[in-house]
Design a protein that fits this description.
It is built from 18 helices and 29 strands. Strand 9 and strand 10 form a beta hairpin. The structure holds 5'-O-[(S)-butoxy(hydroxy)phosphoryl]adenosine. Belongs to the ATP-dependent AMP-binding enzyme family.
Length: 602
């Protein structure tokens, strides 16, 4: 416990904690009990007070080519104005604020303004559909929603406010604050207010009240094994301690020297922990880029690395594989010599991508830190130290100091090297989730019922002969598409909500670029005409483009056990073009022949 107390010293505490960990209410942990702090003050004001007001916090790069450098002093002023603005709308500590914004500075400012007021934010990825936004806003009972007129995507302005309007039709949300980004005409209703009209005239003075260490900081929704996303709850002191600690040790971050860039979107946990809270708590200078990596050309990231002298670059395997496809001659056109540490997150990185990343981006020498963690863990849990004597392409290797992880078998017994098992976290950690918003039963059931006294991560893993950990992918019905978690049930329920579909089964099939691709099998309703394209679009409308199936097969039947459970294993065999496995437990063993026959017909 001295270890975590030492890490907590990285932060400014208005009131020091009395106890490092109270685990008596397990599985609900309390870290740094009695301590009081303000997350926004820790990320912004204290750096200004320490004389670093002129240091650039954010080199922001817009997709169309506009850019802004924001110093810590400017960031403080903006966060204070925004906090005053939200307070003027009646936002108080404990109120939830939903944020759906593109990757613009206001997104970070809005999150920090909420943190400053003690109002938990719930950021919703900009690519989520109106109905996905609606269910999240309703579940969290958000009082205010912050959005933009539109966002730039691949050189095009696409509407955002219109989606929000659709999502919020008839909802209890009191105010919608709209940032002007793309400049298109948007109808402003009675509850709508422009960000610039609301925020710009506010005072830059705002007193940052200290909140209890366990005060909720944010809710972030993630997919589980059912159709309904879970609102993962994170609190203040423990979360901020662990994100600051890991951002510093895993990336060997040096404030004032490094230029850091994490390519995630703030709509995901990676953006929360490694764009907003970790780096800013550590007084990083970072790049924030709004757009897609091939707009206007496939060298965009490397041009940015060269221009700003990026030294730490953190991205996902799916993007590395995309860069590989575009060709190594593209990064070769730029000076990437500033890069010193490379990171990977989101899925196991295949050794081929690892080697390419090291060779063509890291000059053959940069350490690659493969970081395993989850929305639920809040911060990095398993990663090789950047000064590691040996890196193993494809292995996240060892828990970071202070963290304990184990690979166990069905009975909860630690497995021998080489055997596969389940990854569990057998000790509480500061940034662990503090529940599923409004659903205690689901929290206990999902994470704490499989193994006594340990957190079940949902990932398969094994040890190698050195005791290093290799992650093997999800063991539940959760797919990993481009590093994003999508549940099979979510896509299935979107499919069956279409009138032409009677039944649907969805599997994740290996995909050379995205890790997994979504493959759906649908049984049409009697005599109904189904258009596969229409169904794909329907899923994109229901959930968002990231959930669009790569392939939809129209089949007469689905393989089920006698108890009616769909055997996804067999469907995966079909989707991955393998010979079909053991069918003896099927209620009707002829079904697979029909499906395979159907496949060759399509
Ligand atoms: C799931 C969590 C953590 C931020 C991004 C995703 C997979 C993540 C790795 C890695 C192997 C990984 C796991 C995990 N995953 N990083 N380095 N090696 N698998 O957050 O959406 O909560 O997804 O992503 O399956 O359970 P998330």
């Amino acid at each position: 416990m001295d270890f975590w107390a030492e890490q907590a010293e990285r932060l400014h505490w208005d009131v020091r904690w009395s106890e490092v960990l109270d685990w008596s209410g397990a599985p609900y942990a309390k870290w740094f009990t009695g301590g009081r702090l303000n997350a926004a003050h820790n990320c912004v004001d204290r750096h200004v007070e320490a004389g670093f007001g002129d240091q650039v916090a954010i080199h922001w790069v817009g997709e169309p080519g506009d850019s802004r450098d924001i110093t810590y002093a400017q960031l403080r002023d903006e966060v204070c104005r925004a906090a005053n603005a939200l307070a003027s709308l009646g936002v108080r500590a404990g109120d939830r604020v939903a944020i759906q914004l593109p990757m613009i500075p206001e997104a970070i400012v809005a999150m920090l303004a909420c943190a400053r007021l003690g109002a938990p934010h719930s950021v919703v990825f900009g690519g989520f559909s109106p109905s996905a936004l609606r269910s999240r806003v309703e579940d969290a009972e958000a009082k205010v929603v912050i959005t933009a007129d539109g966002q730039f995507r691949r050189g095009q302005a696409v509407p955002m406010k219109a989606n929000v309007d659709e999502a919020l039709a008839g909802s209890a949300v009191e105010k919608v604050v709209v940032v002007r980004r793309t400049g298109e005409d948007v109808p402003m209703g009675e509850r709508d207010v422009w960000w610039h009209e609301l925020v710009d005239g506010q005072s830059t003075e705002h007193f940052a009240e200290a909140f209890d260490s366990e005060h909720p900081l944010f809710i972030l929704y993630t997919s589980g094994t059912t159709g309904k996303p879970k609102g993962i709850l994170h609190t203040t002191g423990g979360y901020l301690t662990q994100v600051a600690y890991t951002h510093q040790v895993v990336f060997d971050h040096r404030p004032g020297e490094d230029v850091y860039w994490c390519t995630a979107d703030i709509g995901w946990i990676t953006g929360h922990s490694y764009i907003v809270y970790g780096p800013l708590a550590n007084r990083a200078t970072q790049v924030v880029y709004e757009g897609t990596p091939n707009t206007p050309h496939e060298g965009r990231h490397w041009e940015i690395v060269q221009k700003y002298g990026v030294s730490i670059y953190y991205t996902a395997p799916t993007l590395i594989r995309t860069f590989m496809k575009w060709g190594e001659d593209i990064p070769a056109r730029y000076d990437l010599s500033s890069l010193r540490v490379l990171g990977s997150v989101g899925e196991p990185i295949n050794p081929e991508a690892w080697r390419w990343y090291r060779e063509h981006i890291g000059a053959g020498t940069a350490p690659i830190v493969d970081t395993w963690w989850q929305t639920e863990t809040g911060a990095i849990m398993i990663a090789p130290p950047p000064g590691s004597p040996e890196f193993k392409p494809g292995s996240a290797q060892t828990p970071v100091p202070g963290i304990s992880a184990m690979v166990v078998d069905d009975a909860g017994k630690e497995v021998a090297p080489g055997e596969s098992g389940y990854l569990v976290l057998d000790q509480p950690w500061p940034s662990m989730l503090r529940g599923v918003w409004g659903d205690d039963a689901r929290f206990r059931e999902t994470y704490w019922s499989r193994f006594t006294g340990a957190y079940f991560a949902g990932d398969g893993a094994r040890y190698d002969a050195d005791g290093d950990i290799w992650l093997l992918g999800r063991v539940d019905d959760v797919m990993n598409v481009s590093g994003h978690r999508i549940s099979t049930a979510e896509v299935e329920s979107a499919l069956v909500s279409h009138p032409a579909v009677a039944e649907a089964a969805v599997v994740g099939a290996a995909d050379p670029t995205t890790g997994q691709g979504i493959v759906a099998f649908v049984i049409p309703r009697d005599a109904a005409e189904v258009s596969v394209q229409e169904l794909r679009d329907h899923v994109a409308r229901e959930i968002g483009p990231i959930a669009k199936p790569r392939q939809i097969m129209v089949v007469p039947e689905l393989p089920k056990t006698r108890s009616g459970k769909i055997m996804r294993r067999l469907l995966r065999d079909v989707a991955e073009n393998r010979e079909i496995g053991d069918v003896t437990t099927l209620a009707d063993s002829g079904v697979m022949a029909q499906i395979a026959g159907q496949k060759s017909a399509t």
